[in-house]
Amino acid sequence: MSKKIELARKLHALAQRGVGGEKANAEQLLAKLLTDTGLTLEDIERTDRELVFLKSTKAQQWLMVQCVYLVLGSKANPCGVINKRYWVCVEATNAEHLEILAAFDVYWNLYLEELEVFKLAFLSRNRVWSQDDDSSSSNKKPMTPERERMLRKAAIMASSIDKVTHHKRLK
Questions:
Q1: Which of 47, 105, 164, 167 makes a 20 to 30 Å CA pair with 11?
Q2: What is the pLDDT of residues 101-144, one digit of tens each?
Q3: What are the boundaries of each domain within the chain?
């Protein structure tokens, strides 16, 4: 996102100082870039930092903090729980704020997808499922390319998970 912000700033400068077709092209490209990214002229013109509060759940807070560091690097100084709610607060520009939220959205959705693969691998490795699940064809999901890819990843992941049975643990 920061590369797009820099590009938007350059196009904005060219649209202000350019002449003729150069100016017109810069204005068109800037308008398209702003539409595609959801940025505004205020976002690219402002470079002052303000305190930003990023809402998260307890389960999401660790990833939100990592996204803050991803965007802001070592200059980030995030704080955690505020008033018993899971907020991450940090000083950032509007553009950095948007970039943190965009990164979080992408990585959180990917995390949830990978968590589903892990659950399937864990259950498969330890054979934790109902005996009826194997024989009931009505419960089976249709095999799509995405489902097949997920099952392959789960099979590979399952081989590296420790196998245990609850019977051994009871002794």
A1: 105
A2: 999 999 999 999 999 999 999 998 988 876 665 544 445 678 89
A3: 2-45, 50-109, 123-170
DSSP 8-state symbol, 118? H
The whole-number average pLDDT for the span 14-30 is 82
- If we measure between CA atoms, which residue out of 52, 43, 103, 111 comes closest to residue 78? 52
Smallest Cα–Cα separation from 2: which of 91, 94, 65? 94
- What is the maximum alpha-carbon separation in the chain? 84
- DSSP letters, 35-91, are HHHT--HHHHH----EEEEEE--TTTHHHHHHHHHHHHGGG---B--BTTB-EEEEE
Instruction: Tell me the pLDDT tens digit for each residue of 41-89.
Output: 877 766 678 888 898 888 998 999 999 999 998 878 888 767 667 888 8
Task: Find the helix packing angle between 145-158 and 94-125, rounded to 10°.
Answer: 70
DSSP element (H, E) containing 92: strand 87-92
Instruction: Give backbone dihedrals phi and psi of 40, rounded to 5 degrees, phi first.
Output: -120, 170
Rounded Cα–Cα distance for residues 169 and 171 (Å): 6
Which residue in 119, 20, 118, 105 sits closest to 71, CA to CA? 105
